[in-house]
Write a structure and sequence with these properties.
22% strand, binds glutamine, 18 helices
């Protein structure tokens, strides 16, 4: 029988429920359990695909093409197993399903209500993953903060489900904040007491408290929390601020979070987590032998979360290369022909980020031309690859007015054009080319050498594509299409044959980089940047 762990958040948002969930899952996985994590988001968007990255950070895409919350990226990076559509559910999707059922007549005669119809749908979604019979433990993270109006149906669903599941089959971990008042030089427990009361009002008694804090919590504080919040002192865990999110599994192991969880769920303890590979990675991450500085050219740079997976991929690939990757965000809107040399001074490579729309394109093209001509390593992802194709068409192939149809819909030379299948699509939500697609890499190319194989599969999220009308022209040039989808013949990779490292990919390699499997393209790109840095000295 599958066991369920629910993770709620109290006091404030952004406490890192995703990281705590992923860390616990990692420890349980190391102990020999099959675990997955699911996130329930209380907003009304059906998925985060239509949300501006400024609002909600990056949209993470799963193998099966679901547009999901960026926390799923953490789950995959920590657990090294893919997630799917079932791992992320929003209030919007719950209501959409219930309303569709109502329109079909499934509830004929009944008044459709939050309880039981919405709560039933939530309960079903929580249990959906267990139907695959793949997991012994499912961790369900409830987005938002206890006390929010939006969270109420979720808490009610958990309250009911805990009864249905019976004793020792589920538990609730409440992640909370213990603020430090510097004037009083004291850690304060009151906000946590209130947030636990709020949970209790919803009929839920947390089993374990995980306390985010800037300072070590004393025994007295643990005792006090235990007394006021109805938990045993052993179940008050400290989650102290860590230098990196990758420290958290080790910190949680010290607090014995995994052991307490297993005891409460009446599960075997399994073998003690050694985290061998994980600790090797941490060691390399913390003691880099050198530093390399790379520019990230994008337009959502104000918010690091907008490019979360790219930043994390640089952390993984930096560790492989035993170097610290310093990522410098460069706002494409601020780049001009005049200032480009100054902007890229001291950088050993640039990555041109994914994106949508016309804003910031000019700056990206200027940056690409500069690094192409100066032999500085270049990595283009999705829009970044499309810009590399446009730049080359304009400046090298001298195709006048070459452009992406996304930027200039009336261009006579759409070297990047809307995909045929996209032409009739009107709705914007969930309609892009999404999820994993196969790609064949031509032999004797840099890309094949990097992947060490000919057939790969990578994840996508885009509407525009390399226009195959220009395939022959490009194949005869130095910017060659070298990765092709075997079914649709869409171009997935281009590389410059006369440049030390100039690769553009239509897919998103950053979505598949994990601690245990850093993405080969990122590893190779960082290496190329180190080589460039060494050559320049
Ligand atoms: N806007 C481009 C497209 O839709 C690129 C998308 C992306 O970078 N994810 O094709």
């Amino acid at each position: 029988m599958t066991k369920y762990i629910f993770v709620t958040g109290g006091v404030t948002s952004s406490l890192g429920k995703g990281i705590i969930s992923a860390s616990l899952a990692k420890l349980l996985q190391e102990r020999g359990f099959t675990v997955t994590i699911q996130k329930l988001d209380p907003y009304i968007n059906v998925d985060p695909g239509t949300l501006n990255p400024y609002e909600h950070g990056e949209c993470y895409v799963t193998e099966d093409g679901a547009e999901t919350d960026l926390d799923l990226g953490h789950y995959e990076r920590f657990l090294n197993i893919p997630t799917s559509q079932a791992n992320n559910v929003t209030t919007g999707r719950i209501y959409q399903t219930v309303i569709e059922k109502e329109r079909r007549g499934d509830f004929l005669g009944k008044t459709v209500q939050v309880i039981p119809h919405i709560t039933d749908e939530i309960k079903q979604r929580i249990q959906l993953i267990s139907k695959e019979n793949k997991y012994e433990i499912i961790i369900t993270e409830i987005g938002g903060t206890v006390g929010d109006i939006e969270s109420l149906p979720y808490l009610e669903a958990i309250r009911q489900l805990r009864w249905d599941l019976g004793e020792h089959n589920s538990l609730v971990i409440h992640l909370t904040l213990i603020p430090y008042l510097s004037a009083a030089k004291e850690l304060k427990t009151k906000p946590t007491q209130h947030s636990v009361k709020e949970l209790q009002k919803a009929g839920i008694q947390p089993d374990i408290l995980v306390c985010r804090t800037e300072h070590t919590i004393s025994d007295d504080i643990r005792k006090k929390l235990a007394l006021f919040c109805n938990v045993s002192k052993k179940d008050v865990m400290e989650a102290i601020d860590a230098p990196t999110i990758y420290d958290v599994p080790v910190l949680m192991q010290k607090e014995k979070l995994d052991k307490r969880v297993l005891k409460k769920l009446s599960l075997r303890l399994g073998k003690d987590p050694k985290l061998v590979q994980w600790k090797q990675f941490l060691q390399k991450l913390k003691c880099p032998k050198k530093t390399v500085t790379i520019g990230l050219v994008g337009k959502y740079n104000e918010l690091q979360d907008a490019y979360k997976s790219i930043y994390e991929s640089f952390i993984h690939s930096g560790a492989v290369n035993e170097c610290k990757v310093k990522v410098i965000p460069l706002h494409s809107g601020d780049i001009s022909k005049k200032n480009i040399a100054k902007k890229l001074k001291g950088l050993s490579g640039i990555l041109v980020a994914p994106g949508f729309g016309e804003r910031g394109i000019k700056g990206k093209l200027i940056a690409i031309q500069y690094v192409r001509e100066k032999n500085i390593p270049f990595f283009g992802i999705c829009l970044g690859m499309q810009c590399a194709v446009v730049e080359y068409a304009k400046n090298v192939l001298k195709i006048k007015n070459a452009a992406s149809a996304e930027v200039h819909p009336k261009t006579p030379h759409p070297v990047i054009d809307l995909m045929q299948k996209q032409k009739k699509i009107i709705n914007l939500g969930g309609t892009m080319r999404l999820g994993a697609f196969k790609c064949h890499i031509l032999p004797q190319t840099k890309s094949q050498n990097i992947y060490k194989k000919n057939a790969i599969s990578e994840r996508h999220r885009h509407r525009y594509e390399f226009n195959n009308k220009y395939l022959n022209t490009f194949s005869a040039s130095h910017l060659k299409p070298v990765g092709i989808n075997p079914e649709s013949e869409l171009v997935e990779i281009v590389e410059h044959t006369q440049h030390p490292w100039f690769i553009g990919v239509q897919f998103h390699p950053e979505l598949k980089s994990t601690v245990e499997n850093p993405h080969p393209l990122f590893v190779s790109f960082v290496k190329a940047c180190l080589d460039y840095q060494a050559r320049k000295k």
